[in-house]
Amino acid sequence: MVLPAQRTVWDERVIELTKMAQEQCLDAHLWASHLSSTLKPFVKFPSTELAEILVSYICWDNSVPILWKFLEKAMALSLVSPLVVLALLAQRVVPNRGSQSEAYRIYLELLKRYVFRVKDHIKGPHYHNVMNSVANILGLPELFPMETSKPGVLVVEFVFKMVSQLLDACLSDEGLIKLSQEMEIDAPEMYKEKTGSHEKLQTLNTIMAIEMIAEFLRNIVISRLLYLVSSNRASNWHEFVRRVELLAESSSALKSSKVLNSGELLELVSDKRFGYSCDSKVVSSTKSNAIVDFGSLASFAGLCHGASPSSLWLPLDLVFEDAMDGYQVNPTSAIEIITGVAKTLKGVNGSTWHDTFLGIWIAALRLVQRERDPIEGPIPRLDTRLCMSLCIVPLVVANLIEEGEDESVMKKLRDDLITSLQVLGEFPGLLAPPQCVVSAANKAATKAIMFLSGGDVGKSCSDVINQFFFAGNMRHLIVEACVARNILDTSAYSWPGYVNGRINQIPQSLSSAVPCWSSFVKGAPLNAAMVKALVSVPASSLLELEKLYEVAVKGSDDEKISAATVLCGASLTRGWNIQEHTVEYLTRLLSPPVPADYSGVESHLTGYACMLNVVTVGIGSVDSIQIFSLHGMVPQLACSLMPICEVFGSYTPSVSWTHPSGEEISAYSVFSNAFTLLLKLWRFNHPPTEHGVGDVPTVGSQLTLELLLLVRNSYLVSSETLNRDRNRKRLSEVARAASCQPVFVDSFPKLKIWYREHQRCIASTLSGLTHESPVHQTVEALLNMVFRKVKGSQTLNSTDTSSSIGAASEDSIPKPEFPAWDILKAVPYVVDAALTACNHGSLCPRDLATGLKDLTDFLPASLATIVSYFSAEVSRGVWKPVFMDGLDWPNPAANLSNVEEYIQKILATTGVDIPSLAPSGGSSPAMLPLPLAAFVTVTITYKVDKDSERFLNLAGPALECLAAGCPWPCMPIVASLWTRKAKRWFDFLAFSASRTVFLHNPDAVVQLLRNCFRATLGLNAAPMSNDGGVGALLGHGGISPVAPGILYLRMYRALRATVSVTEEIFSLLIHSVEDIAQNMLSKENLKSGSRYGQSSLATAMTQVKLAASLSASLVWLTGGLGVVHLLIKETIPSWFLTVDKSDQEQGPSDLVAELRGHALAYFVVLCGAFAWGVDSRSAASKRRQGILRSHLEFLASALDGKISVGCETATWRAYIIGLVSLMVSCLPRWVTEIDTEVLQSLSNGLRKWGKVELAILLLSVGGIETMDHATDFIIHLSS
Length: 1279
Prior knowledge:
Elements lengths: L3 H20 L4 H12 L8 H11 L6 H12 L5 H11 L8 H14 L3 H4 L5 H12 L12 H23 L15 H4 L2 H24 L1 H13 L1 H17 L1 H5 L5 H7 L2 H4 L22 H5 L7 H4 L1 H9 L11 H16 L3 H17 L12 H21 L4 H18 L3 H4 L6 H16 L8 H6 L6 H11 L30 H7 L6 H9 L5 H13 L2 H11 L2 H4 L5 H11 L19 H10 L3 H9 L3 H15 L7 E3 L5 E3 H13 L25 H10 L11 H13 L10 H15 L10 H13 L7 E5 L2 E5 L14 H21 L4 H14 L3 H15 L4 E3 L9 H14 L20 E3 H10 L6 H20 L4 H12 L4 H14 L2 H16 L12 H5 L9 H6 L8 H23 L2 H6 L2 H48 L10 H24 L11 H16 L9 H18 L1 H5 L3 H13 L3 H10 L2 H12 L4
Antiparallel strand pairs: 1-2, 3-4, 5-6
């Protein structure tokens, strides 16, 4: 740096020496020597000040050849930095190229000579100063923030600036764009006489500049630097590519080039070279053999080639089917879950959106087809499956489309949706509608024909269907669902083959559409006949539903009840086009507004008692609850039910309201229906032992009231993505409509007291009662009421209390008048006293069951507390077993053998040994623990009808859970007893009993998992064929035998040892790779490199990917987030460190080792993506950085030699290369979250393995933080 005081002195000296050398025609080298010796006392070379003086002197008064030679010599001898000179000339020469054609030509030559040797110009201690000078001259940085502009970042900016400036100059010279910075200067006199020569030189300059642009893109180092721009500033790069495409398409100068054509120029900016999607190749595809480049990004992405839609989208099928399990609701919307899975599979599989949409639709249709032969029982059935296929999936698709960055992207997504639905017509087997929806499908097809005929599509299709037959299918229903959500328009009706029928057959005048709804919208009253009609037919539009909701909120008391009744009807279960709105309105109805004129002391909810009762009863079925769950409405539903329970649980049974039908609705009824519904939303009867240890609790055991409220309260928090996610926006609006404030269990004192007592009851034995306490008095009254029919004097002892009950008449003991909450506090002591008396022989089992049934008749909600008590007592194991001999207790013998036979049929293909159900002696009656015997005896006193359904749906899962936890064969005994009660449930009960085989035998679980792998991969066939896939894993409906995947999905939630199960899944993945290799690869063909060997290898890679996909899906479903974290952080690193290499595989061991590495890479990426998502939308994504950093630090340490791995080298290499390839190509956001030091270590390790391009990709995707290192890495790579 020259001091300011010295600057003028040596400025003049430089110019003086240069003028003198110019006049004397001095040799450039001699001039440079004189200049160097003269300035050496004042300045350090290379000197930015000297470069500025020389360029200023030349431009433009002294633009003569000898001075350009002097300047070039100063650059060659490093008196000035070539990069600084090029920056100065770019500012001076390029804008004046029209008048300074020769100077522009010299600039191009200098640029060509020096810019491609950028490595030579940034050596030594002057690197930082040189780049800062370049930045000041060119006004950099333009692309990246100033605070992150390290020298490497400035090098990238400089290169991009140079090539962009050339591109703009070429476009401007050919009139393709107009640049504002162009300087219009008259040509010098010397050109006025040589206009032809000047124009020729300009043309040649333009050709050279275009060729220079191509050289920028072709040069290895420069193109890699430009890749950093493409991967970190996509918008700038896309604009650059757009301008290159304009030049290639329209340039006349390019056509005159002898070394370049438009096709070559376009190829240089293609996605193939500058994209990092899974579809792109980043390295040469020329390989020495079939195995060399398994780890390259291109071949790893190619794993999906040849895979069928079934195998590609297997995780979706598993998620869909898993959501059909009615034993647990999910607090997270299925829309959110499926959206995340779809984005994950699209990214990791490298699929197009067309294929993604098609995969989603096919999986959804398969879900419906698997219900072709349904079994009867208290489980979700076809309505839930149709909700998933015709409402949830269209909402998922809408979500994916609306996440598009701009309108053009969204249009492309809609086009892909259209083509996917058009292709769907090629799957007629999947499109056949279930019998119960044939009419709806036919109406949808008729609507399309009416539209094409010019008829009024708002008119009814019923009359047309009566006169003509138009066969509809599931695609017609899907299209209607999409049209209703504005992601398709009616142009879909014109698709080829969409409708079949003669349009001229359609009558032009039809009666009004669904007459009942049309009449209602026009103002017809909600009388009994109208309500009956509306309940049976779903609303066809949101307008009709809005009108109904308005009546439910603002109408008379009778109208509110009628409107609520209609909302709970067909519009909820079959109104697929408006179902999300129906669910929303019903949830809102449970939090009715305070009337404007309300001034009462009591809660305003009492004024809505009948309506609230209608809603809680109407949505209490298994299918309805699952529909709410799929829509993500469970957290808010629970929040809305809590105040209802709090209020109505405070009243005595004498408080009642009159229903319009004349029926008296007591406070107990309103409370019991709301309370029972609330308990179905979480695992209320599960003991704390199921909550797991540490970070890996049992899946679903965390589902508590606190969690539901936590999820609900999260909807109140605004986020950037809220407005772009229609599902979260709807959930937020519903939550805010109920209350804009967070809600906690503490907000409801009476519910909180019961909740804490309930938890204590589940966790420990009952505490003693204080004599004459309020609870003691309630216990006494209840014991006297429910056991009033017991003959003779008997004593029932509860803890520290007793009650002597004589033969009292039914009328002599009035029913107690206690609030429901007080009853619930006393019920555990009542049941304990009764069970103790039965155990001591002072109360017979029949009277025990009858008394407890009377208690539940008195307060139906007490069934929940009875369930909790029995759950706790069975798990404690302190009660002696009782003989189910048909004398004191019911006898299961009549059905036990049938149940055993059916279990054997169900499990026929699993290879699992089924213990005999016969008692050890052969003649002894079956036995059950006393609490379980009492519980099952109480439940079979209920009628199997619609009125009892909501209570049996509460007790049923708890009964099965308890029986499954007891020694074998308790559950088959329970199933046999219940079969006597409900013969049509036999299949369901036998299936439930069959699941418990796996809970008592860990080896059976492993065998089932092994069957899942073999079925999916088609390993049951020899030789291997196309068998396997989704159909083999999940079957096609029916339960004799049950497909292995269905068995596992219906059983795994009851497993407690989830960590060991997921370790078994991991082990099966490792071993399945060897099975795949042995079944599909011929050693001789691989050695000979024949075409068959290549084909077998591709097929094997597809199967490996399928095995990893299955493994990741099962791990995620079984263990959830906690187990995925444990797997990535501990299990897999431990496996790499401890695996025994002495056990060499037979056959192509190197190939097996390499395949294993790729399987593990795909497995880990999928596990993480399922748990965290591919982006940062989910709450779980916040934990991704820590877990992923830990895993990659382990890999980096091993690459640095700090850790020695024990696995095969081929496995280790394939794993790291595959993992990094997938991350950079499919999950770039993950890479940006990793520490720069870790990425540097990984990239250095990849470079040592010769994976230079992959190392550059890793650093490129790492973002601005790694760009400085990436630049250094690229520039200093050895040739």
